[in-house]
Specification:
Structural class: alpha/beta
CATH architecture of the domain at 6-146 and 175-204 and 265-279: 3-Layer(aba) Sandwich
CATH topology of the domain at 6-146 and 175-204 and 265-279: Rossmann fold
Shape: globular
Bound molecules: NADP nicotinamide-adenine-dinucleotide phosphate
Order of helices and strands: EHEHEHEHEHEHHEHEHEHHHHH
Strand order of the largest sheet: 3-2-1-4-5-6-8
Largest sheet: 7 strands, parallel
Oligomer: single chain
Helix content: 40-55%
């Protein structure tokens, strides 16, 4: 590839780390072509030692951002994991990318950002809009479907208790692995879109929660009991567990989103971008079997 520089924000995070690894190892980007940002530069010392330009950038601190983004041709804006409103920090990052003269921006959004009832959907919608309204001519809006990893990271109780509480009914979602989404992001940076392109990055098979549970039983040896609830019943049940209100709202609105089939779809865009098929849920379960069985006490 040419000597254009690629910048990855959130490079210490789970997705960002994997994007950087794919860029260096699979896409032959040299360390000198890569800029990475984090709020804690010491966390990326290993990359700095390899010759990657490690810079500090906090989206909540707009003053530092333009300097941090200078010199980048293509910039991957990884949505932040902050608790609380993310819109302003994201808009700060888009404005700084524009001022720094970035030619192409890629952004990790979510499916159906405008219609979705999920509590944080409006933050993705506002960020997409800011990108489209900016002077940055080229953008890849990656509408990343749900990570398979959400099961052990956020919904481990399914494995721990053997009960899958859900109000998603027969709604389907085409989930995929975080690694596949990282590979797609690396591909989008190496071959930047011309103009504004929105990609629906889905897994290869759209499944109901019950179908996913059946695969978990088959591969992991669990015996998951589907507990089908209305949104109100799901909320009341979660309240009895003493969960904080924002977590309860997140769970119920995600299932509302899934019930409306807003994460349904095919892997066509993923395959076109990456030239490969996403890992299936069954293969992902096999690859992570030991860790998942441990959560299920098996
Ligand atoms: N599709 C899905 O199912 C799904 C699931 C989970 C999350 N997500 C989204 O995808 C993103 C990446 O996922 P992940 O698993 O890699 O999450 P993660 O490991 O929690 O990484 C989040 C990143 O956000 C960065 N960040 C937080 N606050 C920031 C700020 N004020 N300024 C600049 N950077 C900030 C952190 O960077 P530093 O700490 O290095 O500054 C960190 O690298 C998440 O942040 C979230 O928006 C999607």
């Amino acid at each position: 590839m040419s000597d254009r520089k690629i910048l990855v924000t959130g490079a210490s995070g789970k997705l960002g780390k994997q994007v950087v690894s794919y860029l260096l190892e699979d896409f032959a980007v040299s360390p000198s072509q890569l800029i990475v940002t984090t709020r804690k530069a010491e966390s990326l010392k290993a990359l700095a030692d390899k010759g990657v330009d490690v810079r500090e950038a906090d989206f909540a601190n707009p003053d530092s951002l333009v300097e941090a983004f200078k010199g980048a041709s293509s910039l991957l804006l990884i949505s932040i994991d902050a608790a609380g409103p993310r819109t302003q920090p994201h808009l700060n990052a888009v404005a700084a990318a524009e001022q720094a003269g970035v030619e192409h921006i890629a952004y990790t959004s979510m499916p159906a950002a405008e219609q979705s009832p999920v509590v944080f959907a409006h933050e993705h919608e506002a960020t997409e809009k800011a990108i489209k309204d900016s002077a940055i001519a080229n953008a890849t809006i990656m509408r990343n479907n749900w990570y398979f990893e959400n099961i052990p990271e956020y919904f481990a109780s399914i494995l721990q208790t053997g009960h899958w509480l859900t109000s998603a009914e027969e709604g389907r979602s085409a989930q995929l692995s975080r690694k596949d989404l990282a590979y797609a992001a690396a591909a989008a940076l190496v071959s930047p879109a011309k103009g504004i392109v929105t990609l629906l990055l889905n897994g290869g098979k759209s499944q109901t929660h019950a179908e996913m549970a059946q695969l978990m039983d088959k591969v992991l040896g669990t015996s998951i009991n589907m507990v089908n609830l209305t949104d109100d019943q799901y909320q009341s049940q979660l309240e009895t567990f003493g969960l904080p209100e924002p977590i309860i709202a997140l769970c119920t609105t995600m299932d509302h989103h899934n019930r409306e089939n807003l994460s349904d779809g095919t892997s066509e865009a993923f395959e076109q971008l990456t030239g490969r098929k996403p890992q299936s849920f069954e293969a992902w379960l096999e690859a992570n079997k030991t860790e998942l069985q441990k959560l299920a006490n098996l």
